[in-house]
Specification:
Layout (H helix, E strand, L loop, with lengths): L7 H17 L9 E6 L2 E5 L13 E5 L4 E3 L8 H11 L3 E5 L2 H7 L4 E2 L13 E4 L7 H10 L5 E4 L3 E6 L2 H24 L7 H14 L9 H8 L2
Parallel strand pairs: 7-8
Antiparallel strand pairs: 1-2, 1-5, 2-3, 3-4, 5-9, 6-7, 8-9
């Protein structure tokens, strides 16, 4: 989904699709969690009380960056101010908030998730845990915004997780990555004290990823293709 090609109906459908995918992946249960996408000064966001794993586009509300209603028949999620705060401060394109089980479990124990695997560098490295506050409050929104500084993800103490990205697909992928990393940490901690990557090791990974254009597919050079075919 891109900002240039979106319309309110497409935004609402995209949010519903993302929620159903997150539900299928086990990151959403019942009405717990919320998802939004921003295009220009519009934000399409899940309605309060909706069952997210079965969300339909008509259960997505469109508001402006001040929270004023533009489209939709239902009130937006109680975490609206959290989403709007992320958009205002970080200029991002999409926000995903889940009560994913591994992420929530880790948020009940740690003050931050250490960089246990180099893939966490895609989220900025260590993932901070925002202090607990009641859902839907300015206190919670403020602490999460602080925890997100320089990061694409944050955990919420005894609550869940938040990720953001330029696109909705990327924000969903960030949520899946965070949940995977929290699961890895839990398994490692059950066997002993987990090791984690220090700053020098993290920097080496970043340098290697840049040098190798890590994470992108590349066609085999023609000469090598011919050599492989002749064997």
């Amino acid at each position: 989904m891109t900002a240039s090609s979106s319309t309110p109906s497409r935004e609402r459908a995209a949010v519903a699709d993302a929620c159903r995918r997150l539900g299928a992946e086990g990151l959403l249960i019942g009405t717990a969690g919320n998802v939004s996408v921003r295009v220009d000064d519009r934000v399409a966001i899940t309605a309060t009380g909706a069952v997210l794993a079965a969300l339909t586009p008509d259960q997505v509300t469109v508001v402006d960056l001040d929270g004023k209603h533009i489209e939709g028949s239902y009130e937006p999620t109680s975490e609206l101010e959290l989403h709007l705060g992320v958009y205002r401060r970080y200029g991002t394109g999409a926000v995903v908030h889940t009560h994913a089980p591994h992420a929530t479990a880790v948020s009940c124990v740690l003050d931050e998730l250490p960089c246990i695997h180099y893939q966490l560098l895609a989220l900025g490295g260590t993932v901070r845990v925002a202090p607990y506050a009641t859902f839907g409050t300015p206190e919670l929104a403020g602490s999460v915004l602080t925890a997100l500084e320089g990061r694409s993800a944050a955990l919420m103490a005894n609550h869940g997780a938040v990720t953001h990205a330029v696109t909705l697909d990327q924000a969903v992928e960030h949520a899946l990555l965070l949940e995977w990393a929290c699961g890895v940490y839990q398994r490692a901690a059950s066997m002993g004290t987990p090791r984690f990557l220090d700053e020098q090791q993290q920097l080496a990974v970043i340098e290697a990823a840049i040098a190798r254009n890590y994470g992108t597919t590349r066609p085999m050079p023609p000469a090598q293709e011919e050599n492989r075919g002749s064997r």
